Every structure is written in C-alpha cells, then in structure tokens.
C-alpha cells in the first residue's frame, strides 16, 4: 500500500468496493456509532460536517441520522454510488461527492467539523490534504483524523479482533499486522506533518490500535 501511495491515492473500486460494503458492514457499524458519539460530543446540534474518504458511507449516514448536515467526499466513484444507495436505504440525506482529499470540491470555511477515519494513510499527499482540511474548515472548527497507529502492538491488535470469528478474524488480523500497519503513521510522524500546515493547535492521542489527531482552527 505504501508503494502504491507514492504514485497515487489508494482507493477501492469495482468488485472490491462491493465486497468491502458487504463484508465489513457488520463490524464497522458499531465502530462508526462510537465515532459518531465522539463527534456529537464536540459539535453543536445541526452542525455542518465533512467526512473525507467515507467509503460506503456508514459514518456519514449515522451522523445524518443524528441531525447533522453532512457532506462526504471520496476518490472512488464506486464508493460514492454505493454510499448514495446506502443513504437512500437508511432514508437520510448526505451530499456524497467524488473528489480528492488533496483538492476538496468544497468552498472555503464551509464546515464546523471534519472527520477522516481509516483512510488518511491512503493519501498520496497527506500534508496537502491537511491544508485542504484547514481551508474548508470554519474558524473555530475542528478536524479529527482517526487511523491505525503504526506503533500498535500485537497485543493491541489481538484486543481489537477479540470477539470476531471465522475467516474474517484471520483476514483482519493479517491485514492489521501487515499492509495496514506498514502504511500507517506514528504519533511523531503526524506531529511533523501538522507542523507543515496552518494548524497551530492540535492534540494527538493513541488508544489501542488507533491514533486520534484533533486539529483546531
């Protein structure tokens, strides 16, 4: 994944996008509800939220259910289509758009909050993506990046997959320990990237296999 990222942003397309939606939905929905709880604790009711790289749209849909005004931008045309179908099935409104994290199709200072989960390690130009988040974020707004921590231990990974069963458990464990972990960033690497952006206030914490990066404008 890291070698691919040097040439282009990593996206999921075609049959792989359909497979991802079908096979990760159950495990990801509970996680998305936890992320939505965190976001809901940080913004006012009805806030304008941007999700960068939403994939099948689970988090955006959950946030829309809670009354937020949600826009979501993904590089994969297939994921945009799938996410729109999922939103229609959930009977919520989300503005899903095709676009690149390093060139967001959004106006300056549009959003109260920005979230990007499990995707930042896929971006070819991560610092430029951070600049774009700063550009489209309102003054006083917050951006939150949640991703895998490259310094996660085997124990952290085992805790994460505890409760999973069958082939899914072994596939997820293999993914975490190999290509996902290798592509991920450390806390110090995130700090170095943030220092190259206009964000002056930030907080970074690690929890289990995850790293949480809070950026304040």
Can you give me a brief rundown of this structure?
By secondary structure, this protein is an alpha/beta fold.
Task: Set out the fold topology.
Layout lengths: L1 H4 L8 H27 L7 E5 L5 H8 L3 E6 L2 H14 L4 E4 L12 E7 L8 H11 E12 L5 H8 L4 H18 L3 H8 L6 E7 L2 E7 L1
Parallel strand pairs: 1-2, 1-4, 2-3, 4-5
Antiparallel strand pairs: 5-7, 6-7
Helix pairs in contact: 2-3, 6-7
N- to C-terminal distance: 31 Å
Number of helices: 8
Strand content: 15-25%
CATH superfamily descriptor = Vaccinia Virus protein VP39
Which parts are unreliable, with pLDDT below 50 for 5 consecutive residues or more? 1-7
CATH architecture: 3-Layer(aba) Sandwich
Mean pLDDT over the full residue set: 86
Describe the largest sheet.
Answer: 7 strands, mixed
Please compute the radius of gyration using only Cα atoms: 16 Å
Structural class: alpha/beta
**What's the domain count?**
1
Number of beta-strand segments: 7
List the secondary-structure elements in sequence, H or E: HHEHEHEEHEHHHEE
CATH topology: Rossmann fold
Note down, in words, how this protein is organized.
This protein is an alpha/beta fold. It has one domain: Vaccinia Virus protein VP39 (Rossmann fold), CATH 3.40.50. The protein is 45% helix and 22% strand. It has helices at residues 2-5, 14-40, 58-65, 77-90, 126-136, 154-161, 166-183, 187-194; strands at 48-52, 69-74, 95-98, 111-117, 137-148, 201-207, 210-216. It has a seven-stranded mixed β-sheet, sandwiched between helices. Strand 1, helix 3 (58-65) and strand 2 form a beta-alpha-beta unit. Helix 2 (14-40) packs parallel to helix 3 (58-65) and helix 6 (154-161) packs antiparallel against helix 7. It is globular. 37% of the residues are buried.
């Amino acid at each position: 994944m890291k070698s691919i990222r040097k040439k282009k942003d990593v996206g999921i397309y075609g049959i792989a996008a359909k497979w991802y939606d079908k096979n990760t939905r159950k495990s990801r929905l509970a996680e998305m509800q936890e992320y939505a709880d965190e976001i809901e604790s940080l913004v006012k009711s009805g806030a304008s939220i941007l999700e960068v790289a939403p994939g099948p749209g689970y988090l955006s849909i959950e946030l829309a259910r809670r009354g937020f005004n949600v826009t979501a931008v993904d590089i994969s045309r297939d994921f945009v289509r799938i996410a729109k179908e999922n939103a229609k099935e959930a009977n919520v409104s989300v503005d899903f758009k095709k676009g690149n994290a390093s060139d967001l199709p959004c106006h300056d200072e549009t959003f109260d909050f920005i979230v990007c989960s499990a995707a930042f390690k896929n971006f070819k130009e991560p610092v430029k993506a951070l600049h774009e988040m700063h550009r489209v974020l309102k003054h006083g707004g917050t951006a939150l990046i949640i991703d895998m921590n490259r310094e996660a231990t085997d124990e952290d990974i085992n805790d994460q997959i505890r409760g999973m069963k069958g082939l899914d458990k072994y596939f997820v464990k293999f993914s975490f320990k190999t290509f996902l972990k290798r592509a991920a960033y450390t806390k110090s690497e995130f700090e170095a990237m943030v220092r190259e952006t206009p964000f002056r206030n930030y907080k970074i914490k690690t929890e289990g296999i995850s790293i949480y990066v809070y950026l304040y404008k």
